[in-house]
Design a protein that fits this description.
- With 177 residues, this protein is an alpha+beta fold.
- The protein folds into 2 domains: 4-132, Ribosomal protein L10, N-terminal RNA-binding domain (Alpha-Beta Plaits); 133-177.
- It contains 7 helices and 5 strands.
- The protein has helices at 4-20, 34-46, 56-65, 70-74, 92-102, 123-130, 135-176; strands spanning 23-28, 49-54, 81-86, 110-116, 119-121.
- It has a 5-stranded antiparallel sheet with strand order 2-3-1-4-5, sandwiched between helices.
- Helix 1 (4-20) packs across helix 3 (56-65).
- The radius of gyration is 27 Å and the shape is elongated.
- It starts with a helix and ends with a helix.
- The mean pLDDT is 84.
Length: 177
């Protein structure tokens, strides 16, 4: 049993992290082993993502103090709750949690929803964020799209130049004949 002082410390710590976050993903980990949760924590820690298990009553207090509607995230929720809080990237926490939950041995884990900036996100929105390509891939795709018209223009000009040279050669042959 947690003392009132410990509960206040937990709420204050999580509230501070929620305010500093870029993204937060709420999940139900009921049925997972300690080894599975430890593996998930290691993966999250590598990407500067905090993973906290918290009582639902304390989480409701944190969400209310942070200005969010706890009912929007935790309605009809009956399991054990944890929150993954991403500080560096909006994509990494959802990506790691979704990948972990999708693995067959971890299928008991359920994504409940999340927070992005000041918005409450559904489970489906968190999963959609999880499948956004990495920054490097997006930059590569952007470079390709930006270079594509120039490449196409060069191809057209190259082809027209060859046709023009051929036409000029034909004209010269007719004049000389």
């Amino acid at each position: 049993m947690l003392s009132k002082k410990n509960k206040e410390l937990i709420v204050d710590d999580l509230l501070k992290k929620i305010k500093e976050k870029k993204v937060a993903v709420f999940s139900d980990f009921t049925g997972l082993s300690v080894a599975q949760i430890s593996k998930l924590r290691r993966e999250l820690r590598k990407q500067n993502v905090a993973y906290k298990v918290i009582k639902k009553t304390l989480l409701r207090i944190v969400l209310e103090k942070a200005g969010f509607d706890p009912k929007a995230l935790l309605h009809n929720f009956k399991g054990s709750c944890a929150v993954a809080i991403g500080f560096d990237s909006e994509i990494e926490a959802p990506k790691i949690i979704a990948k972990f939950a999708k693995a067959r041995e971890n299928e008991k884990m359920k994504i409940l929803g999340g927070l992005l900036d000041q918005s409450v996100l559904s489970k489906e929105q968190i999963i959609a964020i999880a499948f956004i390509p990495s920054r490097e891939v997006l930059l590569g795709q952007l470079a390709y799209v930006l270079a594509s018209p120039v490449t196409n223009l060069m191809g057209v000009l190259n082809g027209n130049t060859k046709k023009l040279i051929y036409a000029l050669q034909q004209i010269q042959q007719k004049k000389s004949a």
